[in-house]
From TrEMBL:
The chain crosses the membrane at residues 12-32, 93-115, 147-172, 184-217, 229-249, 281-300, 312-336, 348-368, 394-417. This is Glucosyl transferase GtrII. Keywords: Membrane, Transmembrane, Transmembrane helix. It comes from the Bacteria.
């Protein structure tokens, strides 16, 4: 490919990435504690005061939650230990939220870069596809929970980030030949695998699946070097620790729904959600994006697997991607006893599903290039001027252009873009709603902080600005509501109440 065209394409792809994530990243500077955040902040502070140590207090809180509520040990520990708001106020809270999003973006880049074997243009394309998938497509409205609500940021987004780091270092350990570096990568991958398995089971399942996929795709090398199994083993150990938590079963049994109680019901519910959500995953924009990934992968000869992708391996990868997606949602379907999952679970599933399809697109590019383009190159020509590989690339390009044209004219595509997280955050920033809502929340929190200890603090807000992308504070008119009580404990008050017209 012409160097000038390649440079221009790289610039366009970088601009697409920036355009997708710029306004969501800006929005992190206007975040504040919300809902369950008050519970973890107050619980962590109480544990630290009781035991005279944040570390010991946080570990104690994790053991209690492990027995009574859920097994996600990593997320629960970090929620109680870091406590950015009670330790450092709103500035520290912002740094934490911004840091977690940057880590997610960085981990995503590392994974698609190493999967593309540092083929720069293909890496840029895959990364642009990932950012578009996360912030601009159907379901991205749920990003409010995944990137601005601290509890879900830690329990889902950060844990998925750990999973991506585990995958990155695992792939590096397979690709690397220097034994010392291999050992280092295995240690890092194992650590992140164990941490990732300590999140929500919606993250635990793909963590194990990603690392199992590395083992299967690189089976020849794993067979020769058994130590390459270490990351997968640590992910499974973490998963067993998570699943074995008595709290998982106590929490699930307290919310049983008729017709959704058994494992067989969960299998059905997971399939119901899986097939119903697939149409949202494959919205018109994602179809264009995945075709572009395949096209650029073919043109720039991506090599996900150095030894090549056979027909059999392509079939295994295809089935594996579908299984990863199904087993991502199964734990949630079984745990919540329903086929209609919460917004943050659905949002996380959409991101994971699209990431796996982007990987599948890269594999299809290599397989198609090896089985079709390379075999026909130089053997067939049209009019003695155009080689078969050009015909194939032009055909793929025309198909992608047609899909893009359809996406641009389809009303449904316009609705998707308008409702996306990128568009919502951009409107909130442009209209000044970020600033207005943040000032109201800052006033509420400051009032609680300055209120006399042990009193009933009642705040009346004569106005409240609607905001499309920031979460609510969660403190309302009912002083006995869970969030109100948690906030009262955090600020050492008797009760907290917020009244609005």
């Amino acid at each position: 490919m012409n160097k000038t065209v390649t440079k221009l394409l790289n610039i366009v792809l970088i601009l697409v990435m920036i355009g997708a994530l710029a306004s969501p990243l800006i929005g992190t500077a206007f975040t504040y504690p919300s809902e369950d955040d008050f519970s973890y902040e107050s619980g962590g502070s109480a544990g630290a005061a009781e035991f005279g140590s944040s570390l010991i207090g946080s570990l104690y809180k994790v053991t209690v939650i492990y027995k009574m509520q859920q097994g996600c040990y990593t997320a629960m520990f970090l929620d109680h230990f870091i406590r950015p708001y009670s330790r450092f106020g709103l500035p520290g809270f912002h740094i934490a939220i911004i840091g977690y999003m940057v880590l997610f973006i960085w981990a995503t880049w590392l994974v698609f870069s190493v999967l593309s074997r540092k083929n720069k243009t293909v890496s840029y394309c895959a990364m642009a596809a990932a950012m578009l998938s996360t912030f601009t497509m159907t379901g991205s409205v749920h990003d409010t929970k995944l990137f601005y609500w601290y509890t879900a940021v830690v329990g889902y987004t950060l844990m998925f980030t750990f999973s991506l780091f585990a995958l990155y270092f695992s792939v590096l350990s397979v690709q690397e030949t220097d034994n010392r570096k291999v050992n280092l990568f295995l240690v890092l991958s194992a650590i992140f695998a164990f941490l990732g398995s300590g999140g929500s089971l919606v993250i635990t399942s793909p963590t194990c699946s990603f690392l199992l996929a590395v083992v299967i795709v690189s089976f020849d090398r794993v067979k020769a070097k058994k130590k390459l199994l270490i990351p997968f083993v640590f992910a499974m150990i973490g998963a067993l620790v998570n699943v074995a938590a008595p709290g998982n079963y106590q929490r699930a049994s307290a919310d049983l729904k008729e017709g959704h109680t058994t494992v067989f019901d969960a299998i059905r519910d997971a399939f119901t959600f899986y097939f119903s959500e697939m149409k949202n995953v494959f919205d018109p924009i994602f179809i264009v994006v995945i075709l572009a990934v395949i096209l650029i992968g073919v043109i720039y000869k991506v090599r996900v697997k150095e030894s090549g992708i056979t027909n059999g391996m392509m079939g295994i990868i295809f089935v594996g991607v579908l299984l990863i997606q199904y087993f991502t949602v199964f734990p949630a379907a079984y745990g919540y006893h329903t086929n209609e999952l919460s917004t943050h679970v659905t949002g996380m599933y959409d991101i994971i599903a699209r990431f796996t399809f982007i990987f599948l697109g890269l594999c299809i590019s290599q397989w198609f290039g090896e089985t079709v383009v390379d075999k026909l190159t130089g053997k067939v020509s049209i009019g003695g001027k155009v080689d078969a590989d050009h015909v194939v690339k032009y055909a793929l390009g025309a198909l992608t252009a047609l899909a893009l044209l359809l996406a641009l004219v389809l009303p449904s595509a316009h609705v998707i873009v308008k409702d996306s997280f990128t568009a919502r955050t951009f409107r909130d920033f442009k209209n000044g709603r970020f600033t207005e809502v943040y000032r109201i929340r800052e006033y509420e929190l400051t009032t609680f902080e300055l209120a006399e200890e042990g009193t009933d603090c009642i705040i009346y807000i004569p106005w409240d600005v609607e905001c499309e992308s920031l979460p609510g504070l969660g403190i309302g008119s009912d002083s006995e509501w869970f969030t109100n009580v948690s906030a009262a404990h955090l600020f050492n008050l008797h009760t907290t109440t917020v009244l609005m017209p």
